[in-house]
Fold this sequence. Notes:
The chain is mainly beta. The chain contains one helix and 18 strands. It is 4% helix and 56% strand. It is globular, with a radius of gyration of 20 Å. Residues 1-15 have low confidence and may be disordered.
Amino acid sequence: MNKKILGLIFIMHTSFASDLPTVNLGLSSFVDGAVPAGSGWYAQTYFQNYRADSIRDTHGNKIALPQSEIDYQSIVQQISYMSDIKLGSGNIGLNMVIPVLAHVDVDDGLNNQAIKANRGLGDIIIGPFIQFDPVMGQDGSKFSHRFEFQINLPTGEYDRNKDINPSANAVSLDPYWAATYWLNPKWTLSTRLHYLYNFKNNDPNYSFGNAEDIQAGQALHANFESSYAVTLQLRLGINGYWLNQITDTQVDGENVKGRREQVWAIGPGAMYSFSPHDHLVANAYFEQDAENRPQGTSMIFRYVHHFHK
């Protein structure tokens, strides 16, 4: 391996952090704080296509590689149950998110000597939630919200000798609050606000040398949307997400500066309701101002089905 390639690999590993696990960036969008058809079982199937043509360093600049293309496709299945059991003013339920298929292609222009990707399934997410009763107005729902205590379990594929892994190899807590407000019967504003806390990975990536453990920093992330019901079935709007790591990553208990991640994205979206029990959602996102992570575009399709009697 020549000195130029060795130098590029060194630059990549000292400039590109990406310590945080995979989190919900844009998977949820329209009317997120409400449940479309009451209690019972729900199945949501997600397909995501993500493409990045650059990896950004701690200053938001492109890392100096001949190429830095990442193509990622995944299929994720979410199973939810909302019971008729009341806790105060809400119904309790349970969510489980199970990766079904994940595929990553990477091209660093160096025969993938600088960026090595591991393929396989990601981590399972499980979370008990409470869906609060909606606040009603003269023309129907005015405000609806939900709280979920989400737990990410390290069940996916992980290889310490790879730079990109489907699994974080660590437990993380990612509770959120989701809310929808109706400005009028057709126009909604929604958000989902997460706080991410990561536990230790006791088999750190090879780039950390002989370190015994790594603990990714804490982060805040959020999804948001504003949409308008053009017809009874079709809703159009804009959607986006935001991520900001708020504490440093720790290696063997010591803070490491310059590894905090951030990104935000915005784009158009649409939702078509075949019935109160079946909905198809499409969202596009164009990322901006990324630091210590890839920057690209994402397209997400989601199908929601309620198993009604």
